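User: quick one
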Amino acid sequence: MRLDLKNILIYSVLSIWAAFTLFPIAYMLYSSFLSPEDIKIGSISFFSNITKLTTVNYSELFAGSMISRWFVNSLFICLVITFAQLIINGMAGYALAKKKFVLNDVMFWSFVAVMMVPSQIICIPIFIMICDLKLVDTFLAVILPSLVSPFGVFMMRQYMQGVPDEVLDSARIDGCSELGTFFRIVVPMSLPAFSTLGIFVFISNWNAFLWPLLVLFSEEKYTLAVGLATLQGQHTIDYGLLMAGAFVSAVPIIMIFAFFSKYIIKGATEGAVKG
Amino acid sequence: MFKIIKFLILSAVITSAVLLRFSPPACAEGKIKISVWDFPRITLPKKPNDRFLWLREICDEFEKLNPEVSVELTKLTWNQGGEKIKIAVFAGVPPDISSSDLPLKYIHSGLIEPVDDYITPQDASDYFESAISSFKTGGKTYGFAWAQKTDYIYLNKALFAKAGAALPRDGMWSVEEFRSAMKTIASALKIRPFGFSAEREQTSELPFLFMYGGGYLDFKNAAGGVSLLHDFIYRDKISPAETGGLKTRDIWIDFKEKQALAAAPFGIWAIPALAREKKIDFDIAQYPYLNDRRSLSHSSVIGYFVFRQSDSVKRDYCIKLAKFITNAENQKVLKYYGQFPTRKSAASIYENDALMKKAFDLFEYAAPAAAHPLLPKIDEHIKSECQKILLDGGLDAAKIASKTAETGAYIAGIIASGAAANKDLKSPAAGDSPSAKTGGGILIAAIFIALAGVLLSFNKKLSGDLVKNRWAYFFMAPAVAVFLVFFIFPLARGVLISFQSYSFSGGWFDNFCGLENFTYALNDAVFIKSMFNTFLYTVIVVPANICIALVLAVLVYRLSERVQTWFKGAFYLPGVISIVTLSIVWRYIFDFKSGILNAALAAFSVQPVGWLTSEEMSLFSIIVFTILKGPGGALLIYLTALCNIPKDYFEAAAVDGAGPVRTFVKITFPLLLPQTMFLAISLTIDAMQVFAPVMLLTEGGPANSSEVVMHRVYKEAFNNLNMGAASAMSLILFVFILAASVLQYKYFKYDY
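Assistant: Done. Structure below.
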């Protein structure tokens, strides 16, 4: 690669934008280690007192809030939803991709159509339904409406269309049951799609905010996102504590991103028009 | 086969774990369970991190005295806790005991138990008259008063001394004395010494606001007070220019941390908070008086009250517990809360604290604030109008008077219409027949089944297929079931609700009100404003996202694989990090007082900008936030598409002598049209539903300048509990989203 003017220009544009987008994350990490005094007086400290770093925000965060509880709650809810979605979406995707039943087209297109419906439009009726069922302030209220995603069904169908019919036919001839075919042939052959979808579902539910905020009431049932949004005093706001909380909540996502960015980047482009 | 069995066992275990853990905890056999919902009010010195220990201890003691009772404590948070109670009441699952100031709205709906029978004459004579009377309405007492509070003007003695300004004698001063002291400090120290805010749900500026008459329920006469505050900013120049957009916590930081204010109003809570840190030498004063010294500051009383109980034994225990929490002995913990007890026999807790004693003396000049069931809504409107006036330096007294009169008339309208239609919050105990509620659900399900039956019996092909392809339907069943229950069905219900005056206790097909909700929405000035803001947000964010993503994709595409991966990660990471996390960071970055943006501006000696606190900038700041979070996903889509374009195209263009710009316009962009179209539609749908950044960064403020539709819907639904109007609003938005999608589809004329 030559270092001519054009390349320098390209690199500087890209780097400047990367700096813009990464700055808040770096700044969050940095200010979570500032002492309460520094952070309140403000960013003057960003330029002068760089030596005074402390972990007091973190110790206060873990001692004074239920963040570890929220973390476990989030983890639990997200794992259940991810697991359920993989099974339900996978099964539906398989039927839509490989079974020629009469309602196939109708069902497929209604899933695609619903992808276009803004999810927040239906949140009031679902909330009323959850109230009717007396499920408010339970984890089930968070989990139930997230058990299936039209996008997930769509994605699984697209992928499973690539599973060759011959393999399925020969499994059937060898006497494999329908369930057996699905779990022993189709699932292993679609593992990449399952991983991509799993990571996506996990991340989006980890970040879910409005719905858990509505249906969870008590502090010890909050998810991390909801807990974080309520993490402030009656009259004051402690930015150091908030930054520490924000960072803790971002850690799993950053880790998933670091290890599985291949799948994530693949998932982000799935469902867009084929070029 | 073995694997399947293993899988089934695993899922059974997980399911039962879910059900076990999240079904309500089995209550101990034969015990009466009382649920108490409260806020983290007090921290005891022995365990400063547990903000509920004080209440837990009191409840434990009560359990010991009454072994047949078990108390279950739900810990609310300050932020959102009030909404939670409201929603729970609305949903028909209220707690047994909770605390706040007089819950008029619930009392009017018959949801609160009167407790007069439990107040003995000794109790009654032990209460301060002001305290017990504020929990009385309509001749009955609806709860046990627990703590009294009010606001004071806090003074920074050091700044007063430095400027040679006179402190008020005995904490009392006239408006003129106050103003001249402030002016002295302003000219001596070159600062604007008096800070205040017009934040929603805060009371500290109210004594000034209503000084010349007027009040919450009678706002049209408040012009004098509004002008006074306006003058503080623009004529006397004793208050900061950005006051209208500030929140109490901004003032608090300025007063306590930066010591940039000589005087500021805060609640009584600030006395122990300031005394504890010993950072600042301060004193308190009463609000300045005009002529007479009565009712200078607004007081309010917090009490514990009991929600309607159907079981008389449990009601007895609930009321006893509420009384127990608030008895004179237990009121002594108030000394850690820094608020005044409501019992004379507990009044001695501040004996050794000179400042609290002075505060208690000045409390004599406080009077209860107005009470009205619609106060939250009225407060919201008044504060947003005040913010607007305070942010506009161009107004003169006459204009302010006419704006105040306008607001007063609007509020009179709210009060009148609220009296006419006390429609929300019907009593769940009385009107709650489960059959009426589930009846609609059963009816709908029956219609579904009947439709399916008709379809099947008339369509031989379908019924045959159901048998032949039973496995296909088996695989589809879970997804279709969830899909029907949580997508299709709520969509239908949402449309239904938007034509109803919805109340939780009503049936499915009750209370139809025609287009009332839609006319309400379209006549709501804030909703119109929020539509406009949403539109503005969308037309900026969507093209910006697409352009940035396109430019970055074309630039990244040329680089080597490894560098590409790095940049992809850097651009996409903010997209996967939670919007809550990033909003918190950005709120800090945008912060008027301690944010790095204003610090950076200050380094170039540019005046600080109210990124989130001024009417001009608030929406713009949210847009900047979204754009910096946004284009990662779009970039990846473009990049994938670029990699699929055959290289010959570019080579051919190069051979023909086309420059990079020409290649882009003539080849790259047309080939990326399908992706652009896909992004335009999906980003528009997303952008029009923007909610979280607004909620987390500005809550729609100041003065509704950053209100967007979904946030308006949220507030209407879960703050005002007006589900019908909220559904109507979201339906209107949905129509716009559909229209936008169809328009884009037509415009791009692409076969997709």
